[in-house]
Design goal:
The complex is a heterodimer of chains A (about 160) and B (about 600).
Chain A (H helix, E strand, L loop, with lengths): L2 E5 L9 H11 L10 E5 L4 E5 L8 H5 L5 E3 L6 E3 L9 H5 L6 E3 L4 E3 L9 H5 L5 E5 L5 H14 L1
Antiparallel strand pairs in A: 1-8, 2-3, 4-5, 6-7
Chain B lengths: L5 E6 L4 E6 L2 H7 L2 H12 L13 E5 L13 E6 L6 E6 L3 H7 L4 E5 L6 E6 L2 E6 L8 H11 L6 E4 L2 H4 L7 E3 L3 E3 L4 H7 L2 E7 L9 H16 L2 H8 L4 H9 L20 H5 L9 E5 L9 E4 L18 E2 L3 H7 L8 H14 L3 H17 L17 H13 L4 H4 L3 H7 L8 E2 L2 E2 L9 H9 L12 H6 L7 H14 L14 H11 L6 H21 L11 H5 L14 H12 L9 H6 L6
Parallel strand pairs in B: 1-6, 7-12
Antiparallel strand pairs in B: 1-2, 3-4, 3-6, 4-5, 7-8, 9-10, 9-12, 10-11, 13-14, 14-15, 16-17
Helix pairs in contact in B: 1-2, 2-21, 7-20, 11-13, 12-14, 13-16, 17-19, 17-23, 19-21, 19-23, 20-21
The chains are: A alpha+beta (about 160), B alpha+beta (about 600).
Chain lengths: ~160, ~600
């Protein structure tokens, strides 16, 4: 069973614990500037939306890479950048329609979400459940349930 | 580690910025944020300097836990000599700016001198630029924020700025960061404006490392669990700090109409229930809650104003959401001025954030002006034709904007309550201490709060001690001195960590020590933190004594000392400061004149001045 990150912006308070956890996992320092997940605020923070790679099945970044530095992690479904192979050409950053692959000028390589090998630290760190790691086939389950609950309440 | 071990010193007169090594001896003794900045202030300026002159020093300081995974790690402090009080000013703020300064590689930013022309500071890691601010001089905080992000093509910049109020020397101007968080009190924004410094825009990618990552993450996990499970935390998330307005109303500690009364008949129109209530046209004031950086409490309120409300009708620029009412803003725009129009209160809050002013000082100053108006001392001729009656939502909204823009009678309100009351010959109507206005707690019902107000080093303040539990339990002044002193030291320690005081509903100093000990070099215990707190408090006191303050400044207005509370739990009581203050000095190890004894200074490792 593959799992996916499920993001529920309604629950996000914009605390950035996810960005800190992500950077700590990958960089060994608390450094949101190097986070692979970013939280965006709109209208003075009335809405906050975490955004990161959704691990496309037909991943444009993976197909565009000329040196096959991005490969599929069969266990998690993540598309993973291999730093030793990446030449920093940035073609993947153009190919990705969502902007979730980015170049790190310090290393000369690109970075993207790798689902932390199946234990995504952003989901682990999120205090409100705005980011969870769930069965990829049932990302809509909770939302369905909450609407079903409304029907139940109205019945 | 956990400290970046670097400070950024910027001399605005000379247009020069330089990086210095953090004095680690001071870091060990004063920790960070409030404490460390106080030490740096003391060592870098003459306490008798003019607060709005070039010889004042303005410090932005993070703490060792700022920018770490610890909950509420977004705090930073602004420390300087305050223009409202002539005493040391220490205002802290949340949002994201403080952590960003740390991520750029600095523990502390020290600003000295005065720029010849308006400038702003642009910091991206090692890049430090002092750039012309002519295009944004006169702009609001919100426009300044947007302009800087566009000018540098960097939406990730975090901005701390002053509005027109700070530029024009409004005595209670604040520094606003991230649009609606503020280093709010004591006029630190006026100091920034006096230096011709419009804004500080920072982006950092250096990051923060801790001493023992594994142990730190374990400590963070455990302390976060304690915080998360705390009922008070859940209440702050659900209701926000304005939950206090119902508590104070019932208790009879809610200052109303410039402290003539202590309960307000309009509370139900401005309390959390009112904020969440849906009006007939579908409008609700409250939209959502919001966290500061790294915070797992999320007490912040995001609200919006009904488009049909008189304050914003045909003013589309205020139809968006922004920071909503917290307890102190609800009090300062509500009971103390007698107004219960929720959207007018929210609009006044927008004005404070947009133009950079302390809502508490503004509200209490307006309250004094209203009392003078009702006494007939000032008239419509003084107030630009606006009737300043208690309860007037129009007066609140119009004067909030005028004060922010430094127009008309707003210029007089911008003096603060003490100077305004003196100007009109009624100094007794000033409700505050050392020139700074009271927060929303009446110290006839809350005796220990009164002692805390009277002895706070930055003037009247509810956040420099913690006497709620004692005061709610016992309405007399008996035995309040020692707990007040102890809580002041505890708060001073917490304020020096880089974390938020609101964690202390769930955490004792042990929880702070556990996180600090894993994050920082050296051994950190609750006892050592207590010592740091007491050291910080005494150093602040030394600054004030050197600035010319005396025992006579540790007092309360006659209204609280001589006029009994008219209702509530404290009915018939006055504040018993005359009993508490000598006990307090003794508990502190100070002379009867309120000066630390040589023995006390030696015990704390401080030297006499």
């Amino acid at each position: 069973m593959h799992k996916s990150l499920l993001i529920d912006p309604q629950k996000c308070t914009s605390c950035l614990q996810c960005e800190m956890a992500c950077s700590f996992e990958h960089e060994g320092a608390f450094n949101p500037a190097k986070s692979r997940i970013k939280v965006f605020e709109f209208e003075h923070g009335a809405r906050a939306i975490p955004y990161t790679c959704t691990q496309c099945d037909e991943a444009w970044c993976m197909h565009a890479c000329p040196v096959e530095a991005i490969t599929l992690d069969a266990a998690t479904g993540a598309k993973v950048v291999h730093e030793e192979t990446c030449v920093g050409c940035k073609v993947c950053t153009i190919a990705c329609p969502f902007g979730t692959v980015n170049y790190n000028a310090d290393t000369g390589k690109v970075v993207k979400c790798d689902l932390c090998g199946g234990d995504p630290q952003c989901a682990e760190a999120c205090p409100t459940g705005a980011i969870t790691y769930v069965d990829a086939s049932w990302t809509g389950y909770e939302r369905m349930r909450s609407w079903a609950e409304r029907l139940d309440a109205g019945a | 580690m956990s400290w970046q071990r670097r400070i950024l010193r910027v001399n605005l007169s000379e247009g020069r910025a330089q990086v210095e090594a953090l004095n680690m001896e001071w870091a060990r003794d004063f920790l960070g944020e409030r404490g460390l900045a106080t030490k740096y202030l003391m060592e870098n300026m003459d306490p008798s300097a003019d607060p709005l002159g070039p010889d004042n020093v303005l410090i932005f300081a993070t703490g060792p836990l700022s920018g770490t995974m610890a909950s509420t790690s977004g705090r930073y402090a602004v420390v300087t000599k305050g223009p409202l009080t002539g005493a040391i000013a220490c205002s802290n703020s949340g949002g994201k700016f403080g952590a960003e300064l740390k991520f750029a590689g600095y523990d502390l930013l020290l600003l000295e001198g005065r720029a010849q022309r308006p400038v702003y500071l642009h910091v991206v890691d090692d890049l430090v630029e002092i750039l012309p601010a002519d295009e944004i001089w006169g702009a609001s905080v919100w426009d300044t924020d947007a302009w800087l992000k566009q000018r540098h093509q960097n939406p990730q910049l975090k901005v701390a700025a002053v509005g027109v109020a700070g530029e024009r020397g409004v005595k209670f101007a604040c520094v606003v960061n991230d649009l609606h968080r503020a280093a709010g009190r004591s006029g630190v924004g006026a100091v920034m404006g006096s230096k011709n410094l419009k804004a500080i825009a920072v982006h950092g990618s250096v990051g923060v490392k801790v001493d023992d990552p594994k142990r730190f993450m374990q400590a963070v996990k455990e302390t976060k669990a304690v915080l998360w499970d705390n009922a008070g935390r859940a209440e702050l998330e659900r209701v926000g700090t304005n939950a206090m307005i119902d508590v104070m109303q019932e208790f009879g500690g809610l200052p109303t109409r410039n402290f003539r009364e202590v309960q307000f008949e309009g509370v139900e129109n401005i309390n959390p229930s009112a904020m969440s209530a849906r009006k007939a046209n579908g409008h609700t004031n409250l939209l959502t809650n919001k966290a500061c950086f790294g915070c797992t409490i999320a007490c912040g309120r995001i609200a919006h104003i009904d488009k049909e409300h008189f304050t914003v009708v045909n003013r589309r620029e205020y139809w968006h959401a922004s920071g909503g009412l917290e307890y102190e803003t609800a009090y300062a725009f509500g009971p103390v001025v007698g107004v219960d129009d929720l959207d007018a209160l929210t609009f006044a809050g927008y004005m404070m954030n947009e133009h950079g002013m302390d809502p508490i000082s503004f509200g209490v100053t307006l309250a004094a002006a209203m009392e003078l108006y009702e006494m007939g001392v000032i008239t419509k001729e003084d107030t630009d034709g606006i009737a300043l009656n208690f309860g007037s939502a129009e007066a609140l909204a119009v004067m909030a904007e005028k004060t922010g823009k430094h127009e008309g009678f707003g210029q007089v309100l911008g003096l603060g309550s003490k100077r305004l009351c003196e100007k009109y010959g009624h100094p007794e109507l000033f409700m505050g201490v050392k020139g700074q206005e009271f927060a929303g707690y009446d110290s006839r019902a809350l005796q220990g709060m009164g002692l805390g107000y009277a002895t706070s080093n930055r003037g009247a303040c509810h956040l420099k001690h913690d006497m709620f539990a004692e005061d709610m339990e016992d309405q007399t002044g008996q035995g309040k001195a020692k707990p007040c002193k102890d809580s002041q030291d505890r708060v001073a320690a917490v304020d020096s960590t880089g974390l938020c005081l609101f964690t202390t509903g769930a955490w004792g100093l042990e929880e702070f020590a556990a996180q600090l000990d894993a994050a920082c070099e050296g051994e950190w215990t609750a006892e050592r933190l207590t010592m740091v707190g007491e050291r910080v408090w005494n150093l602040e006191r030394q600054f004030n004594l050197a600035a010319g303050l005396t025992r006579a400044d540790d007092t309360l207005p006659r209204r609280l000392l001589e006029t009994p509370a008219p209702s509530g739990t404290g009915k018939g009581r006055v504040n018993e400061l005359d009993v508490m203050l000598p006990e307090y000095y003794e508990a502190r190890g100070w002379t009867p004149d309120g000066e630390p004894t040589t023995q006390t200074l030696q015990r704390l490792g401080l030297v006499s001045l």
